[in-house]
């Protein structure tokens, strides 16, 4: 009889606690979402959206790595975003040599004429925008945004971005795009994880 009573009590306690636990689980799983459009309301692909906790507390870096390819005399992808401290490899998959360089203050470097994969990746150890080109092919250009947070995403063809697996918190959500009229004034707003629909941002873009 006592065993049955204890079992019944455990079930009762579990049933009472379940509604309290579910919101917490949902908050942990909820992403941060954004919708980015231009001044005409057209969705913007390849916009970078990144989230910084309002209290400034960030998890320690995990020695991340990334790849920017060179295919058919183009950088692929055109726009990348990485966390500060990321080592980026630049494979040349063309049958001709490329000379990759950047004069950007956030990272100055040059990979002299080469095929295949360079011996060492390039370490991006400061936040900021890095614009890259090829000394041989002027049409080759790429943009790499280095941010201090591990929580970021790029918008798709519908102008939508989702930053998944963010802990329950309030974040400063910031948006950047390489065609912004004023790249020194990045739009941002505070958004709570799991707060509902996407945060909408309207960017003023230069014509292509």
Descriptive report:
The chain has about 210 residues and is mostly beta strands. It folds into two domains: about 30-60 and about 150-208, Sandwich (Immunoglobulin-like); about 60-150, Immunoglobulin-like. It contains one helix and 17 strands. It has one helix at about 1-30, and strands at about 30-40, 50-55, 65, 70, 75, 80-85, 85-90, 100-105, 105-115, 120-125, 130-135, 140-145, 150-155, 160-165, 170-175, 190, 200-205. The chain has a five-stranded mixed sheet with strand order 6-12-11-8-9, with no helix packed on it. A hairpin with a 2-residue loop joins strand 8 (about 100-105) and strand 9. The longest helix has 28 residues, at about 1-30. It is globular, with a radius of gyration of 22 Å. The termini are far apart. The model is unreliable at about 1-10 and about 10-25 (pLDDT under 50).
Summarize the structure.
The protein is mainly beta and 208 residues long. Helix content is 13%, strand content 42%.
């Amino acid at each position: 009889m006592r065993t049955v009573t204890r079992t019944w009590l455990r079930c009762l306690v579990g049933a009472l606690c379940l509604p309290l636990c579910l919101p917490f689980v949902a908050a942990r799983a909820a992403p941060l979402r954004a919708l980015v459009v231009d001044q005409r309301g057209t969705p913007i692909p390849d916009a970078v959206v990144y989230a910084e906790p309002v209290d400034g507390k960030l998890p320690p870096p995990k020695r991340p790595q990334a790849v920017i390819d060179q295919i058919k005399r183009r950088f692929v992808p055109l726009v990348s975003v990485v966390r500060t401290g990321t080592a980026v490899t630049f494979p040349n998959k063309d049958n001709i040599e490329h000379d990759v360089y950047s004069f950007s203050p956030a990272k100055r470097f040059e990979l002299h004429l080469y095929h295949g994969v360079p011996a060492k990746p390039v370490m991006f150890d400061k936040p900021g925008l890095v614009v890259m080109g090829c000394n041989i092919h002027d049409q080759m250009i790429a943009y790499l945004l280095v941010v201090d947070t591990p929580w970021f995403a790029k918008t798709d063809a519908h102008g939508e971005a989702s930053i998944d697996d963010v802990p329950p918190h309030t974040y400063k959500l910031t948006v950047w795009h390489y065609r912004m009229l004023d790249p020194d004034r990045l739009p941002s707003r505070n958004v709570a994880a799991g707060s509902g629909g996407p945060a909408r941002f309207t960017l003023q873009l230069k014509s292509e």
